[in-house]
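Memo to structure team: turn this sequence into structure tokens by end of day. - J.P.
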Amino acid sequence: MKKTRLNCTAYYFASVFLLLFLFSCRSRPKAFKIVRTIEFDIKKNLSPGDDNWRIENGKAVYIFPLTETDKHVYFFDENGKKKLVVPLKEIKQLTDIDRVAVFNYDSIFVSSRYSGNLYLINHEGSVQKRIVLGGLDSLGSTYQLISPGYSSFLYNGKFLFTLNLAIYQPHLGHNLEVHEYYSIQKHGPYFALYTDPFNNPEKIDTFLNGFFNRFIDTNCNNHDNPRPTFNNDTILFSSCYSDSLYLIKPGPFRIVNVKKMESSYDRHLLKNDPLPIDSMDQDEMHRRAECQGWIKRHLYDPFRHLYIVSIVHSRKDEDERRSWSVIVLNTKLEKLGEHVFWEDEYVPTSILVHSEGLLIQKRDKAYIQNKKFDLFSYDLKPKS
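Reply from structure team:
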């Protein structure tokens, strides 16, 4: 009788524990949960990497420069409704737009690829000021600035920050063509801080020396220029061959924090060596880009004061289905969580901040980027 009573008691407590466990699992919210799908009010597809936005009255306004088709900049609200269309009628040598930054709708900074220029335009597209990227004179003739290639810039409402690639190659003796960027052994990031871009764009602080080997192996080919992320006066930076993120403070430029990125879903992140420059095997370059895991891009979420980093995972070959993940960090670069996606369902380079969470661009069944984004809410809270 006593044994039966003990068995009943044990069964009772086990049942209660199981019910509590199931209830807690059911009631615990998912870190990433789809809220709804948002379709942008535009006939054309939005390509990945169009990741510009600004905050207005507690909401995000998205900025998409579509220059290969109709040469306009489109502004949308958080629901995908069109707010403003700005023509790029006066910008010369226009083939593509690297980035757009907005001070107000009559002060819009536009970076024109292959021109080496930043343009300040109004809402009608009229050019108010042209800023020529430069600042290498003080470093001597041994450096050449690759501003026409892949330039990037940020504007935080106080100062303008630009990132380009600089070449240290004293024996060249000629200006580089675009195709020669891929065969240069010594190159690195070149930073310029325009402290008064409106009134005195020539007043800049530059930084290059000492940063050459921080991010890029100078004996290897760097074919992807990383895009920096602004958080007030702090810059988050990465390179295509580094497994780390770097927090940089400008004026004078200095590294204040380094974070080695690790994915819970990929133990082989960036384990492959970069392709040596002397081989220049394009097929091998393509294979490694398609198969090795690396930091794809990063952004700052001003609504929740968090960094969002997308990591593509390594795979054995190009036929294997590829996954990628979003890693959430606080402002100290401490990891708060990670969520995995499939690359044939969502675009790892096209993530937008939203007052309710994150917008991540969907792919259609034909593996083509379209204008639909899923809105994900996530309940990760910063530790500090």
